[in-house]
Amino acid sequence: ESIAPGQPLEGRRTEVPSAGSGVGSVGASPSPEPLASLAFQLTVPLSINGIYTIQGKIADRAGNVQDLGKIQPPLRFTYDNRPPDIGRLAAVESGTGALIPLDSGGGLIAQPINAVTADVNDVTAGVEWTQTKIVLKDGKEVAVPGALQQKPATQPNPQTLWLLNNPSQLQPGLYNVEVEATDKAGNKATKRLSFGFSQAVQLNPRV
User: Fold this and answer.
1) How much is the pTM?
2) Under a CB-based contact definition with an 8 Å cutoff, are residues 183 and 124 in contact?
3) pLDDT averaged over the chain?
4) In three state form, how does the secondary structure of the chain look?
5) Which pLDDT tens digit goes with each residue over 31-75?
6) Do β-strands 173-182 and 188-197 pair in parallel, antiparallel, or remain unpaired?
7) Would you tell me how many other CB atoms lie within 10 Å of the CB of residue 80?
C-alpha cells in the first residue's frame, strides 16, 4: 500500500527506516461489539519517504496474544510525498530508432521522426503507468495523431512513448511534447518542451 500526505495512519505503529522507530502514542477505542479499534497517533508527522512496518501486540481477556510483527506477509506500507521523476525527453528517428534529445527544448529537428518518448521513474512507490502519458501537439495545441505506448519498470529504461500514426505526413512547424506522470501514491509531475521540425530536403543530383 502507498500512502501520500494527508491520508490516515490509524491502527498503525510505524518504524522509520534507518531513523529509529515512529514517535507517538497508542490509543484504544473499546467497544461492546466484537470489533474495536486501536490507533497509533503520531506526534511527529512522517517526513521520510520509504517503507514502514506495523508492529505491536494485541491481547484478548483470555490472555491470547497476537504479535503483529510475526504476521506474514508483513504489515507494511509505503509513504511517499515525492513526485515521480521525468527524465530525458527525446524524439525517435525513423528507420534507425536513434534518440534525438529534447532536454534543452527549442531546438530544430531535421531528421524524420516516428515517435517522442520520456524516461519516467519513481524509486519509492513506483510509477502508476495507467495514469502516466505523453503526447505530441502541434503549434495549435492539437494532438498529432498517434498512440500511447508504455514500457514499464519490468523492462530496461522505463518509458512512455507517443507513436505517430503517419510519420511521413508530419509537417514542418513548432511542436510541443507534454508529459504527465503519476506514482502509486498519487503524486504527479508534468513536463513540457518545444521543438521545431523541418525535415531536410533529400537531394539526388544527376551526374
Assistant:
1) 0.69
2) yes
3) 81
4) CEECCCCCCCCCCCECCCCCECCEEEEEECCCCCCCEEEEEECCCCCCCEEEECCCEEECCCCCEEEHHHCCCCCEEEECCCCCEEEEEEEEECCCCCEEECCCCCCEECCCEEEEEEEEECCCCCECHHHCEEEEEECCCCECCEEEEEECCCCCCCEEEEEECCHHHCCCEEEEEEEEEEECCCCEEEEEEEEEECCCCCCCCCC
5) 555 566 677 777 888 888 888 888 888 888 888 888 888 888 888
6) antiparallel
7) 25
Q: Whole-angstrom Cα distance, residue 180 to residue 55?
A: 36
Cell triple for 92: 525517435
Name the residue type at position 33. E
Give yes or no for a contact between 8 and 35, defined as CB atoms under 8 angstroms apart.
no
Contact 183, 132 (CB under 8 A): no
Q: End-to-end alpha-carbon separation of the chain, Å?
A: 69
> Residue with C-alpha cell 527506516?
17
